Amino acid sequence: MSIEIVRAEGYDDLSRRAADLVAGCIGSNPTARVLIATGRTPIGAYRVLADGVTEGTLDASGITAYQLDEYLGLGPDDRRSLGGWAVETFVRPLRIADERFVRLPLAGDGALDEYDRRIRGDGGYDLSILGIGENGHLGFNEPPSDASTASRVVELTPGTIDANASYWGDAADVPRRAATVGLRPLLESARILLLASGARKREILERALFRPVTPDVPASCLQHARGEVVVIADRDAFPTGSNGAST
Ligand code: GLP
Question: What is the dihedral angle through the alpha carbons of 229, 71, 134, 193, rounded to the nearest 10 degrees?
């Protein structure tokens, strides 16, 4: 499968292009199963989509949204909940009913295996909206992670703890363990949209898309994705190995 790499001018352009693609998917499949990342990168696209809902040009009420990753060990109303973040930035603004947001089970690997089986039985994700970590992680698939990894509990790496500290104030505020959708179910998505913004993502995007596939750069396994992969990178994140065409 080829990877299409789209060069956006800046963050607003990236957000608009990403929202157009997502809205197109929802338009052609109003009951799509859509896996949604949190993190800063997709927030602009989620806002554009929410504007479409408010203006009446988009109806997302029939989709089912799925959580990509979650910290472990938080209380139900913890401000650091990634599920809470997804509800605030995607589920509510897009007027998706709470029962159409599927949270990751946090009871351990057995529950996550069962979760993977259920999604696969339903036909897999129709669209996965992803960001990329500076260490090449997708969700919390930390290096080393290969294409066969199931959804599971992981220990966060020091680099990810530092990167996530910017969300919550301090590295001490970042939980050490998390649950993540694995690379295998992600790679089985019919479509993957990967978003990258800013110079800090350029080098890892280059390694993920243009260097050999390796568990040390989990996002490199996108080169083996089953479905269509679209990468939208803004000017600063755009990999130098790309001329804007497909790989
Ligand atoms: C985080 C999350 C990912 C997210 C990625 C990039 O650690 N686990 O789901 O996509 O790193 O985050 P950001 O978009 O804030 O750069």
Answer: 10
Is residue 224 annotated as a catalytic residue, yes or no?
Answer: no
SS3 35: strand
pLDDT tens, residue by residue, 200-213 = 999 999 999 999 99
Give the distance (Å) from ligand 1 centre to CA of residue 232. Answer: 15
Residues 85 and 128: their CA atoms lie apart, in Å, by 17
Residue 131 Cβ contacting ligand 1 at under 6 Å: yes
For the chain, what is the mean pLDDT? 96
Q: Is 29 a catalytic residue?
A: no
Pocket test for ligand 1, best of 41, 70, 152, 195 (most atoms within 8 A of CB): 41
Bridge-partner residues for 195, per DSSP? 232
Q: What is the pTM of this model?
A: 0.97
Is residue 244 scored above 80 in pLDDT? no
Q: Which of 70, 137, 164, 234 is catalytic?
A: 137
Q: Is residue 135 among the annotated active site residues?
A: yes
For residue 170, indicate whether it is catalytic.
Answer: no
* Sheet (strand 69-71) strand order: 69-71, 177-180, 152-155
